[in-house]
Amino acid sequence: QVQLIESGGGLVQAGGSLRLSCEASGGTFSSLTMGWFRQAPGEERRFVAGIVWGRGQTRYSDSVRGRFTISRDNAKNTVYLQMDSLKPEDTAIYYCAAQPWALITGRATDFRSWGQGTQVTVSS
Question: In whole numbers, what is the pLDDT of the chain averaged over residues?
Answer without folding.
Answer: 95
